[in-house]
Amino acid sequence: MRPPRMSSVVERRLLVNYRVDPEIAARSVPPPMRPQLVGGFAVAGICLIRLGQFRPSRLPGWVGLRTENAAHRIAVEWDGPRGRSTGVYIARRDSGSVLNVLAGGRLFPGEHSAARFDVRESAADLHVAYASHDETTRVSVDVRTAERFQGSELFADLAQASDFFRRGSAGFSATRGGRRLDGLELRTDSWHVEPVEVRSVRSTVFDDRDRFPPGSAVLDCALLMREVPVAWHPLPPMRVDAGATAENSARLE
């Protein structure tokens, strides 16, 4: 049975982005994918997203759920029948929603691990933290809205950064079986991001010096999306080498 198309409102989507040594990033990406480079760097990060009205697209918004979710991701490219394609490889998804944990990878693409989220926000400040139930992953991020996009070595301006992530809206995520990557694409006619200043960020993934030796993963910038209606379109799974997937996925889990 083909998975249903899902709809939701992105109430908040915070993208915390790192510039990463390409050789280090390549260790975490399963073939046939490879890191997509910007100015000689790979681009990796954390997506912290709250969805409202999450439901099958044929149903009205009022029946939808509100969920807090997170994904650790790397921008990638691969060669397909139509040439070079771009998107993100998602090594791990976490969610505060029991439904996402139970149904992800079964009723719709994307296996999720259970997590507890702590979110505090005002008009100018945002704090998002979570800890996975399996105690392997913890993240804490504090940002403040900014008038200008600045400090990035990956992107010259906000428009360039926005376009890069808009074009990487196809995500393929690791699965427990290791023989395929689940595919899901975010589509919207209302794409809009705004700059934020990162006050602090901690991540058991990017702070782990065994995974990322000193200097190999450096915080670059963060972007915020708010109140954007989106549709989530299932994509055909991507077949990968099972041995490579198991080895590489373990590096970010």
What can you tell me about this protein's structure?
The chain is built from four helices and 14 strands. It has one domain (6-252): Acetoacetate decarboxylase-like. Strands 1, 2, 3, 4, 5, 6, 7, 8, 9, 10, 11, 12, 13 and 14 form a 14-stranded mixed β-sheet that branches. A hairpin with a 2-residue loop joins strand 5 and strand 6 (83-95). It has helices spanning 22-26, 98-103, 158-167, 242-249, and strands at 6-20, 34-35, 37-38, 41-56, 65-80, 83-95, 113-121, 125-132, 138-145, 170-174, 180-187, 194-203, 217-225, 228-239. The chain has 253 residues and is mainly β.
Order of helices and strands: EHEEEEEHEEEHEEEEEH
Whole-number average pLDDT? 93
CATH architecture: Beta Barrel
Number of helices: 4
Low-confidence stretches: 249-253
Instruction: Find the count of extended strands (DSSP E, 2+ residues).
Output: 14
Largest sheet: 14 strands, mixed
Radius of gyration (Å): 17 Å
Q: Tell me, briefly, the overall form.
A: globular
CATH class membership: Mainly Beta
What is the total domain count? 1
Strand content: over 45%
- Counting helices, strands and paired strands, the structural category is mainly beta
CATH superfamily name? Acetoacetate decarboxylase-like
Helix content: 10-25%
Distance, first to last CA:
30 Å
CATH topology: Acetoacetate decarboxylase-like
